[in-house]
Amino acid sequence: MTQSEVLFERAQHTIPGGVNSPVRAFKSVGGTPIFIERADGPYIFDVDGKRYIDYIGSWGPMLLGHNHPEIRQAVINAAEHGLSFGAPCPAEVDMAELVSKLVPSMEMVRMVSSGTEATMSAIRLARGYTGRNTILKFEGCYHGHADSLLVKAGSGALTLGVPNSPGVPDDFAKYTLTAEFNNLAQLESIFAEKGDDIACIIVEPVAGNMNCIPPVPGFLQGLRELCDRYGSVLIFDEVMTGFRVALGGAQQVYGVTPDITTLGKIIGGGMPVGAFGGKRDIMLHIAPTGPVYQAGTLSGNPLAMAAGLAALNAISQPGVYEALTAKTTQLIEGLQQAANRHGIPVTTNQVGGMFGLFFSSEQHITNYQQATQCDIEAFKRFFHLMLAEGVYLAPSAYEAGFISLAHTEQDLADTLAAADRSFKALATS
Ligand code: PMP
C-alpha cells in the first residue's frame, strides 16, 4: 500500500469521503487521491516521495508557483506580530487600495475568507440594494456553495451529478433562475418576462467550472445592457478569473464593467481569502454604513492580507501576464498537436493563464450542454496516464487548468512528452 492509500483509508473514518472538499476525492476519475506533503514552484510532492508537475495550482491561487519566497516571507513576518486581531489593521487598508487600483470598478472593497463568502455576500447586497429577490445564474457556472447558488451548479456538484443539492429548500431555489451560458436570446426573453424582479445576474465571465468556456463576442456586453435596462445588478464572479486572465481580470479583457466583482484564490496568495467590491453607492449599503448585514471574525486577517499583498505586488510587475499567457499557449498548442498526432479528438480553450482541454470533436464548445457531451471515459484514462507520468491535472473533466509563472520550458517539454505517450496509449488501446 502506498502512504496515500494508508492515509485515505484512515481519513475516511473521520472525514466524510476522506476529504475536506469533494472533488479532491478523485470520485469522478476513480482511484486514490494523492496526499501532498509539500509543494515548491511548479511541483507538488506526495507523501510517497513522488514529484508531479502541477496544473491545478491549488485550484488557481498559485499563479506565481508554490511556496513563493516573497509570499512565504511576508506571512512569516506578519506572524511575528500576532495571528488575528479582530480589529482593523493597516494591511487591510493597503489591500483595499491596491485592489481598487488594479480593478478600478471595485471602488470599495470588503474582504472575506473564501470565494463562497464573497459571492454569497454579493448576492445579499444586490438583493438588499434592489429590494428584489430573484437572481439569475448560468447553467454550469459555479459560484461557491451558498444555498441560492447551488442550483444547477457546476464544479464538484456537476462532477458528482447532484446539481441540485439536498438541503437547499425549494423555497430558496425558486428565487434562482438559470439560463444557458452564451445564449443572449434566451436571456432577453427571460428578462422580458421577469426582468423587473431580477436583483442581479451573477456570471463567471470566463466559465471555469464546466472546463474552460470563454464568453462569445457580445455576450458580456449583452448582460451589461440588460442589467442597465431593467435596473438589475451585474455581478462578475472573478474568483477564478481575477488576476488569472489579466491583471485587471476578465472585465479588463472584455471591456465590460460590472457593478460588483467577487474575488478569491489569487488575492490570498494561498491563504483563505475572498473579496467583493464595486460601485461606491452599492457598497455603502453594507453594514455598518448601510442595512445589509455582512461580517467575519477572521475577515481581513493580517496573515492573509500579508500573503495577498505580496502576491498582488509580485504579479503587478511588467511582463507577468505576457509570460503567463505565452506559457499557457505553448502548453495547449502542444497538447492539441499531440492529440492530433494520435488521432484523439480534442478541443482546447484558453484565456490568459486559464485553459481547458475537452475530449470532443466539436470545434467550439460554448455551453454546459456541449461540455457535458465530451468523452468523459477518455478524459479519465488520460488523467490517470498523466498522473502516472508525474503530471497532476484536475481530477475532473469539468475543471479549468492553471499554469504558473514557475513552470519552466523543461516542465512544459516534459508535460508534452508525457501527453504524447498518454495520447498514444489512448489511441492504441
Ligand atoms: N466562484 C468561482 C468562480 C469559483 O471557481 C469558486 C471556487 N472554485 C468559488 C466561487 C468558491 O470559492 P471558494 O471555494 O473559495 O469558496
TrEMBL record:
Pathway: Porphyrin-containing compound metabolism; protoporphyrin-IX biosynthesis; 5-aminolevulinate from L-glutamyl-tRNA(Glu): step 2/2
Localization, UniProt: Cytoplasm
Main EC class the enzyme belongs to: isomerase
The reaction(s) this protein catalyses: (S)-4-amino-5-oxopentanoate = 5-aminolevulinate
Alphabetical UniProt keywords: Cytoplasm, Isomerase, Porphyrin biosynthesis, Pyridoxal phosphate
Cofactor(s) demanded: pyridoxal 5'-phosphate
Record SUPFAM superfamilies: PLP-dependent transferases
Residues recorded as bearing N6-(pyridoxal phosphate)lysine in the entry: K265
Origin superkingdom: Bacteria
UniProt EC number: 5.4.3.8
GO molecular function, one term: glutamate-1-semialdehyde 2,1-aminomutase activity
Gene3D superfamilies: Aspartate Aminotransferase, domain 1 (3.90.1150.10), Type I PLP-dependent aspartate aminotransferase-like (Major domain) (3.40.640.10)
Entries under CDD domains matching the protein: OAT_like
Quaternary assembly: Homodimer.
HAMAP family: HemL_aminotrans_3
Family from the record: Belongs to the class-III pyridoxal-phosphate-dependent aminotransferase family. HemL subfamily.
Name of this chain's protein: Glutamate-1-semialdehyde 2,1-aminomutase
Organism: Alkalimonas collagenimarina
